[in-house]
């Protein structure tokens, strides 16, 4: 079950998908994101790609290739928000998530199979959740190594899953052009082609010493390992900064959770119960990580996928569930939605700092023991008896 523990999740035409998801009139026409009069293409949907349009291409050339395309301006804040939400989906499955760009990540799910099923079942769950919560699609490669999982996700596009079991790695790899190997750029590909090494199989069946003499000892060894699917690099939990989001191995600056309702909801009490459950999840993660935050934000998504985000900064940082929940409820009520039908709700705490750096001033007449002590008692019970051992009464049943 765990012989293919590495997943590579790659969003399908991410920028174009996000830019058009709320504009149904653009779903069946070629779309180019970015460019402008003299700029370059940031992304294009699959209909535009059929005409040869590619990211990084001068916009003038893209217009010549596909004059009927609609050009839309990029909204980097929206891209970042969607990307962060997708990463939260990954982290609900496994803590070992290596974010390599705004639209792709590697996951190690070997510790998640008992709860979520086989790696292939996990891949299908991720695809369904991303589509349901974000209204976009992704493709997933499943394999025993990072490099093979990356190649598998390309073969899965768009909106699919490809699993490469260890016994099928060479059958999968060896017919491919050598330029498809993970990390092999145009210059290395051209050099290998000049040497007569056109396919991955050509590289695999070249004696290692011959390969090292031709391209250098380090590169020769690396290519030989890749050609046999023996990439030894492990998935490392980290986030790559994109548009100012993330920060390598630095601690997270925010934590959040969101939930898509099984059917659209217009009942305030149902929404608030879900917000309480989400707040409990977020606050518990904060306490485990030893952090506290001051800014609470909520996200609501309507039935038509229109999304609103609101935030409020509290007087002092906290990791107390009730403090965060009260602020989240106030933000929700301030929207004045009047029975609007909601598809999704989310809660996030931002501006996280180490908990020990927060020195809370007790209020006059305040009890010695309060919600903070209750939270920690619940945490202890959850560690011993499971997360469902103690819950707020409103969440029972």
What does this structure look like?
With 397 residues, the protein is an alpha+beta fold. The protein is 39% helix and 21% strand. The protein is built from 15 helices and 14 strands. The chain has a 6-stranded mixed beta sheet with strand order 8-7-1-6-5-9. Strands 10, 11, 12, 13 and 14 form a 5-stranded antiparallel beta sheet that branches. Strand 2 (31-34) and strand 3 (41-44) form a beta hairpin. Helix 4 (76-93) packs antiparallel against helix 6 (119-134) and helix 11 packs across helix 12. The radius of gyration is 24 Å and the shape is globular.
Cross-sheet strand order for the largest sheet: 8-7-1-6-5-9
Major sheet: 6 strands, mixed
Mean pLDDT score, rounded? 85
**Uncertain stretches of 5 or more adjacent residues:** 241-251, 362-369
Give a topology summary.
Layout: E1 6-11, H1 14-20, E2 31-34, E3 41-44, H2 46-49, H3 59-65, E4 70-72, H4 76-93, E5 97-101, E6 104-108, H5 113-116, H6 119-134, E7 138-143, H7 146-156, E8 161-163, H8 169-173, H9 186-194, H10 200-204, H11 208-215, H12 217-227, E9 238-239, E10 254-265, H13 268-289, E11 291-302, E12 307-318, H14 321-334, E13 342-350, E14 353-354, H15 371-385
Parallel strand pairs: 2-4, 5-9, 7-8
Antiparallel strand pairs: 1-6, 1-7, 2-3, 5-6, 10-13, 11-12, 11-13, 11-14
Helix pairs in contact: 4-6, 11-12, 13-14
